[in-house]
Amino acid sequence: MNDFSEKLIAWYRKNGRSLPWRETKDPYKIWVSETILQQTRVAQGYAYYLRFISRFPDVGALARAEEDEVMRLWQGLGYYSRARNLHAAAKDIVARGCFPVLPEEVKTLKGVGDYTAAAICSFAYGLPCAVVDGNVYRVLSRYFGLDEFVDTAAGKKTFASLADELIDKNRPAEYNQAIMDFGAMQCVPSSPDCSACIFSGSCAALQKGTVDVLPLKKHKTKVSSRYFSYMYVRAGAYTFIRRREGKDIWRNLYEFPLLETSGELREEDLPSCPEFRSLFGGLQVESVRLVKPGVKHVLSHQVIHASCFEIRLSDSAAELPGFIRILAGDFDKFPVPRLISRFFSLVLGSEI
After folding, report:
1. Which of 34, 174, 255, 310 is catalytic?
2. Angle, vertex CA 113, rays to CA 174 and CA 13, nearest 5
3. What percent of the chain has pLDDT over 90?
4. Domain count, the chain
């Protein structure tokens, strides 16, 4: 075995994290954990994993569930396409009759790419499939001093090939867990404690003074700004929501009536706003109140600048075209984005 892998596994045996999905060989539970941990820190994903497995202990239970319930359990975790893909893939697995075993078969499941397939196959089946994620890119680029871009096809091929060479073929699961934990706990993105690192004497980046610049990325994420004005509508004991459709953010989650404009709306702007008149035209609007202005909600490629208004209609208002009327007390039964949940709490808080 190479010296790098030997040291890494030895470090892991002393410092590795004890996590519930590491105590099972069940490919379903491993798949759920890896999906939750995409773009999510372990500290945040831990409780979600426990709740998800408690409610859906096996792939059949997940396949039989209604999508709204799946999304409700995922609420607040973000990147909701992960939950939709899990649900769709669970139905696919049940139709196949068993969880796939080989990496190429696992990758045919919706939402499963190279990394997740490698994780499942190494952790559940002991196959020598090297995982390559952000932690692995960082550890390998620094240790070997690689100046390849990690976000290009050529760079990804280079790192994948190196990872395949380094993995301990006899202990692939332990090696994969080791390198991921090392990246998450020791070789962290910013200000790592290199003096306490087991590789301080052999790390190329430390010797060259390039720890802070590696790994390299060629493309910068383009971030756009959007301006949302949500209308929390009250008509007696009722409110109005709708399910988001299409391919935009938060698809299949529920939300208040929304006005998206080119800039932030003020309370005094609403009466003359064409979108507002189109939405509430013909209804008896009794009052308009700005509950919370300019909340900044940061997503991976977008920054949402959102405000929440409370719109009170006459108690007799029974319909808002395009929306469903629900009892305000039933709001928490519907899966919603964290931003909507926050606004709902603010409205309730202002009424107490």
Report:
1. 34
2. 10
3. 75
4. 2
Contact between residue 183 and residue 136 where contact means Cβ atoms under 8 Å apart: yes
Model confidence pTM above 0.90: no
Task: Specify whether 187 is located in the same domain as 229.
Answer: no
233 in a structural domain: yes
- Per residue in 110-136, pLDDT (tens digit) is 999 999 999 999 999 999 999 999 999
At which residue do the structure tokens 């190196």 appear? 162
The yes-or-no answer on residue 69 being catalytic is no
Q: What is the pLDDT of residues 293-338, one digit of tens each?
A: 989 998 888 999 999 999 998 877 678 888 999 999 999 899 999 9
Q: What value does the CA radius of gyration of the chain take, rounded to a whole number of Å?
A: 24
3-state secondary structure the chain: CCHHHHHHHHHHHHHCCCCHHHCCCCHHHHHHHHHHCCCCCHHHHHHHHHHHHHHCCCHHHHHHCCHHHHHHHHCCCCCCHHHHHHHHHHHHHHHHCCCCCCHHHHCCCCCCCHHHHHHHHHHHHCCCCCCCCHHHHHHHHHHHCCCCECCCHHHHHHHHHHHHHHCCCCCHHHHHHHHHHHHHHCCCCCCCCHHHCCCCCCCHHHHHCCCCCCCECCCCCCCEEEEEEEEEEEECCEEEEEECCCCCCCCCCEECCEEEECCCCCHHHHHHCHHHHHHHCCCCEEEEEEEEEEEEEECCCEEEEEEEEEEEECCCCCCCCCCEEEEHHHHHHCCCCHHHHHHHHHHHHHHC
CATH number of the domain that residue 60 is part of: 1.10.340.30
For residue 53, is it within any domain? yes
Q: Write the pLDDT tens digit of every residue in 60-90.
A: 999 999 999 999 999 988 889 999 999 999 9
